[in-house]
Amino acid sequence: MEKNSYWKELKESISVVQFIYTFLCLGVTCLLFMTYLMFTSLWIIPALYFSWEVLDWHTPERGGRRTAFVRNFRVWKHMRNYFPVKLVKTAELSPSKNYILGSHPHGIMCCGAFTCFGTEACGFKEAFPGVTSCLATLGGLFRIPLFRDYIMAAGIYPVSKPSIEHLLTKCGTGNAVVIVVGGAEESLTSSPGVNTVVMKNRKGFVKLALEYGADLVPVYSFGENDLFRQVKFSEGSMGRRFQAIFKKVMGFAPCLFKGERWLLMPYKSPVFTVVGSPISVPKVPSPSQEQVDHYHQLYMEGLTKLFHKHKTSCGLEETHQICIT
């Protein structure tokens, strides 16, 4: 029994290590590898690949190349079990409609959102029959050779208007586009016991929902901020200014953090990704600011209600509050 437990823990740890490596280093590794090949006798391989990539440039924003093979890798189930991560359904999502799911909080690495919506490990297809989860992330990642093909195969898409428009208008119904609304700025607030959501000025996803008639669905991953311990810089400090400049240039913020083991191994803290009830949104091709503000307010109220309704069942004390900035 102890031996089986050891191997189970080892497989889970290795699965998490590969995810962290993918999140932090795989893109750079792919770029350096292809650049290196350019200066060897195998230069023809990257030359042909880069030529093909030019022709394939817009594929990520035109539905990508999603494959069940990658999304069903066994490694994702081992990763799910490490924390563990659990998908919690609170309402039905009709396959006859399209949705925009706002995922909160970002945390350091979006472990809950990725495991639930970027893989099939948590049973999204079984929980919501006929609905396809489409996790959206930084568009710049789809310019990195080889890496772009890997994340496209996982059913991940650029978080850009052309990409979301294609998913909501050219791919029929039953599409649930998942956007981590708080993004890089929200990752800087990540800390155990903190439930800060950055979205008061994030209204673009609401405007898109109105333009394409996609219902809004709030999602909250309880425990996401407990997976790492972040080194926080005070406002106005050199470290904070560097993070702000880097985020502005690169689109994401470099966070200094440590885990439970080996610095990078996250704490084994359960993550409950709770999918809320859909907020009905009409189709308004050219929504006014008042309409955007109205549905943005409804969304924030829905998110707050979701948080308070499920916080105790997901491990928080009744006194915990959500802070929307």
UniProtKB/TrEMBL annotation:
Lipid bilayer topology: Multi-pass membrane protein
UniProt keyword terms in alphabetical order: Acyltransferase, Endoplasmic reticulum, Lipid biosynthesis, Lipid metabolism, Membrane, Transferase, Transmembrane, Transmembrane helix
Protein location: Endoplasmic reticulum membrane
Major enzyme class: transferase
Gene Ontology molecular function, alphabetical: diacylglycerol O-acyltransferase activity
Transmembrane annotation, as ranges: 20-45
Keyword field contains Acyltransferase: yes
Enzyme Commission no: 2.3.1.-
GO biological process, one term: triglyceride biosynthetic process
UniProt key word Hydrolase: no
Family: Belongs to the diacylglycerol acyltransferase family.
Protein's name in the database: Acyltransferase
Organism in which the protein naturally occurs: Alosa alosa
